Fold this protein.
Amino acid sequence: MKDLFLRLKGIDQRWWYLALALGIILFPWFTSNYWISVAVFFGIYALLGLSLNIILGYAGLFQLGHAAFWAVGAYTTAILNTRYGIPIFVTLPISALVSALFAILITKPILHLRGDYLCLVTIGFGEIVRLFLFNDPLGITGGINGIRGIDRPSIFGFVFHQPIHYYYLTLAFVVFTIFAMRRLENSRLGRAWIYVREDELAAEAMGIDTTQVKLLAFIIGAAWAGVAGTLYASRYTVIAPETFSFWNSCVMFCIVIIGGVGSIPGVLVGTLGMVVLPELLRDVLEEVVQWRMLVFGAAMMLMMIFRPEGFWPSPIRRHELRAAELTASE
Amino acid sequence: MALLEVKGLTKRFGGLTAVKRLDFHLDEGEILGMIGPNGAGKTTVFNLITGIYPPDGGEIRLNGQSLLGLRPHVITELGIARTFQNIRLFANITALENVMAGQHCRTRAGVLGAIFRLRSQRLEEQRILREAERCLRFLGLYEKRHELAKNLPYGDQRRLEIARALATGPQLLILDEPTAGMSEKESSELMDIISQVRDSGVTILLIEHDMKVVMGISDRIIALDNGEKIAEGRPAEVQRNQRVIEAYLGKEEV
Amino acid sequence: MEFFLQQAINGITIGAFYALIALGYTMVYGILKLINFAHGDLFMVGSYLGYTLVIALIISGLIPNLLVALLIIFLMAMGMVALTGALLERVAYRPLRKAGRLAPVVSALGASIFLQNVVMLIYGPRYHVYPKGILPDIHWSIGGAYVTLVQLATLVISILLMGGLYFFIQRTRLGTAIRAVALDHDTARLMGIDVNRIITLVFLLGPALGAAGGIMIGLYYGRINFTMGWGYGLKAFVAAILGGIGNIPGAMVGGFLLGIFETLAAGYLPWGGAWKDAIAFLILILILILRPTGLLGERVVEKI
């Protein structure tokens, strides 16, 4: 057994990545539509997690209302598509843009707030957005029933209508997002987020426009959540306010924290844990359904007590979280 | 024209007047030492110049341009860099990454540049790296550039803060007790470095507790007590000044 | 005028609930700088315990004297929820006290989910309804508006509880210790105060008050649900911020103000009813942008 392990370890890492990539690409050919749908669901949440990771992980801003940006993207697409017949691939960038503008509008006045205060205001904005969708004051969001009849995306006459089509579409988005996030991490802006997170005053004194840097985190995070919203709306063709509840903001928050804040593989692991695992549990035993949220809540507490940096943390964040423990216990 | 001009600078915290109608200036290329007993308001003056606190009165001008109401990062961009009395490095990243922060305000690459690795962005990244490495070499920290800031010895951390400040390309460098906690040997090495920084064309304002250090290196000295200037002049003059001696030693009982 | 008066009376009643819950938030925040997201759920647990006890003691006819029965119900439910609160602190928050600011937020969310689902597993996911007519259906007319016995009782009981808390905090040794710990843990420790004990005490007091609110809300509205902790909890937190977080009289004032304001806005603004829940958040956002220290202020000084 040990021998096998050592031999496995001896294999060049690249082969593992190749095997993983092949596995992901071939996955839908060896499984049922149900699991493909679960994978698509995973992909959409992974996008949401990665987008929140910019705000919460990189810039260290406590955002507990991320569902609002997701909602703005989904509803923008739904409204433009069902009312004006604009195709999904055209509404996609528009949704990203509208989400980003919305982020500027609401976060600009609150960027100076710290920690848990920011957390509360974002909860507030999230709830107001949900109520807006629910009450439908402008007569465009369809109230409690939401909007149905959203088109599937199509390009050059090809319509993405089967789960497997969606699988690859979502996969493409996730792969591009991971690629883009990796590059952002290692850029001037990525470093600026670290500086702001580590010591905002020192960052400001080093000539970094901390307000702008934080705002950019919200803008990019919101735009990406808007993209995820578009994918979601066109995948399910119907959206309703209850999807964009505070609960879902919490799920996204936990995806980032449990996976390992600021870490891309961490977000993917977190998405597995938060979104796919409950689905698996549902599948295993019918009676478990009732218990899974209970287990889930307990797991969140235990996780924070025994592994606060998450399952797959970024090295810097591990240092930060462990350092907080050290200095505080001195 | 003076590089930095401070006129009638006043700051109150509640009932306490921390800085009282302070006037002073800095000429280009000089080293000005600021001394005074604890609580004299020296660090407050620094925080006012660098825009961290808004003053309650007075004027601060850099090259004739008023700094009032400008945010700290704008002031840094205009050419004033600083260190902190209680070291404020980015503790959990490397020395090199710390110093790269200084170049942020001298570069422009944004989101698209980062994602698509445009040519301009790559050139800029190289420039940031070169400049950061230059500053680290200057402070003798190049060999330790991949160490986490928090793992560096204390003296190195102080020097790393100076390297980071220099990386912003300042005209004026403000040092808040740079040799605090250093050994005699370390602090005399640091004084050499500070002289070299000045020789490279950077004006320096420094707070220093160690009288020997500050007297040796400064071209001029101003002394503060209770937020007011009590003396100004060449080191030897200030050292003999009766009010300065009183402020430091307390009034002689007669 | 009658309408105004009626709305104001209803608002005061709801405000009393907010105030009772807000006290728990503000005390915990004052002492640990932690938003105890599970506090609203403790309130909900109180409401469910109250429901069970009402059935067991009053409806079954076990204790014929209504006042005695209610007194026992309040004391039992408050005591049990207080213990739950202290246990929660011990299990979910104390190990994280040194782990930065992010981990306790997640742990608190986890605790909230946990409590909700415990109640859901025990009682089932449906609404539960407090039996009708526990308190006699008496009401008085004031200028054309009605005050019911439940409303009056709510007001009296909450004022008594809050007054008691205020007295406890201001006038007793333990209360002084609480205030000292809120100011500075280390100094308090140097003064010989057992900080952990004080924190436990705060986690007993806040949930006990919340539980009282939970029973009264059951008596007032009738319907209770295992998810109701969230809504009331968030609004009570807004009330705490409105009054200045960490400030105990502020939480009381904030609670009443929010209740009155919300009810009036719901009554007078067009579509007010549908937007009722948004009003609290709007107030929250405005307060945090315009006056982050709340109406009565808090002590927050940051050193550079």
Remarks:
- Chain B has two domains: 4-79+170-249, 94-160.
- The interface with chain A takes residues 50, 52, 71-74, 76-77, 81-82, 84, 88-93, 97, 100-102, 104-107, 109-111, 113-117, 121, 124-125, 128, 148, 150, 164-165, 168 of chain B (CB under 8 Å).
- The CA atoms of residues 35 and 211 of chain B lie 8 Å apart.
